[in-house]
Amino acid sequence: VQLEESGGGFVQAGGSLRLSCAASGTTRHINSMGWYRQAPGNQRELVASIRSADGSPTLADSVRGRFTISRDNAKNTIVLQMNSLKPEDTAVYYCNARVNVYIIGDYDYWGQGTQVTVAS
Fold this sequence. Notes:
Blueprint: E1 2-7, E2 9-12, E3 17-24, E4 30-38, E5 45-51, E6 57-59, E7 67-72, E8 77-82, E9 91-101, E10 105-110, E11 114-119
Parallel strand pairs: 2-11
Antiparallel strand pairs: 1-3, 3-8, 4-5, 4-9, 5-6, 7-8, 9-10, 9-11
């Protein structure tokens, strides 16, 4: 599985950004896709994910009500719409695809990361 990210950039607090991630390769075993972020000195954390089977989303408490995640299964693409951005949302955002490998279990694929910077 290969993940291609787009979007991100610089925005003032209160603004919006949109991140997209397209999966290619052997995508039929992808169970979920999502976005994680990592700020300097912090661990990587889940922002939002969406299940392939039923489209059910999971959102971190810190972004619920401001961010939404959606998917297009036909295009193997997810979109993270980020509204009302805050300076604390500044981080490198990574696209994730989780597949289930027989016997091994869950395996994560990662994109290269895209910078989101929110100025106060």
